[in-house]
Design goal:
Elements (H helix, E strand, L loop, with lengths): L3 H12 L3 E2 L8 H10 L6 H12 L1 H8 L7 E6 L7 H11 L3 E7 L2 H10 L11 E2 L2 H9 L5 E5 L9 H14 L5 E7 L4 H6 L7 H17 L8 E8 L3 E8 L3 E5 L4 E5 L4 E8 L3 H7 L4 E8 L5 E8 L1
Parallel strand pairs: 1-11, 2-3, 2-5, 3-4, 5-6
Antiparallel strand pairs: 6-13, 7-8, 8-11, 9-10, 12-13
Helix pairs in contact: 2-10, 7-8
Amino acid sequence: MINQEIDIRIIEGLLSEPKTIPSRYFYDAKGDELFQQIMELPEYYLTRAEFEILSEQSEAIVAATHFSKETHFDLIELGAGDGSKTRELLKYLLKSGFDFTYKPVDISPNVLEVLAEKLSDLEGLKIDGIAGDYFEVLLELHASSTPKITLFLGSNLGNYEDTQAKDFLQKIANSMNRNDALLIGLDLIKDPARILDAYNDSKGVTKAFNMNLLTRINRELAADFDLSAFDHQPEFAPEGKAISYIVSLKDQVVQIGATGNTISFKKNEKIRTEVSRKYNSEILVSMLPVDMKIKEVFRDENQDFADYLIRKE
């Protein structure tokens, strides 16, 4: 259920100019199901590209960290999802005899339990899931002298505005000790039409995913959004961002029963629901703290996606 804090954030977003709904609210049970379908779509190259990198280049990625088999380290993952991509890296580390503990971090204890179950077939894996806010957990781990590799995969950094991304990377840097490593996965700048196809698939699954936000607000905040009066509209901004909108097809008024608010829409007025920044090495360097250096870049065969191995100096 949407709690009171979320009520406020959604209402503030709908009353702002321009209107927004934070993308974190995509993920109710239906949203989770739809996103799993999105990852299987032919247009949605991101998951396949990063899976290819981790399945074919894990040896080179680990070598770039300069961690030895004689040194115990923590492998910390921020937002592991279903673990399908990380599994490839874990399999290589276990097969090669590295001494490590996998520590996935998520705000939801249930997500961590499901992940642990999915990885239970990996013999010898030491897993210590940590429920909590990313940065509270990272600050706690910073106090440990155990070397660590932090994973932030799936182009999740792209969901942050540039100033937020810089702040995020600084907080990660603050949690790291000298010679610790960060592996960050990023969707690369490419043909805008190809990027937009990934957010506007031919089967309409991405549209359903976006519009499910309104269904959720109707259900949990007693709103009366008429979904037939809105549409899904992705756009590509010149600075390298794919932006998802829900657009009003007419002048209309929506009532939010749970809070008593009235939201007015003009025809063609948009609600921004997601920003997905696309990267290249120059953009990433401009956002990194001065003591964080890119050591290696690992790309898929089509040059769609990159995993950056970054070390703290």
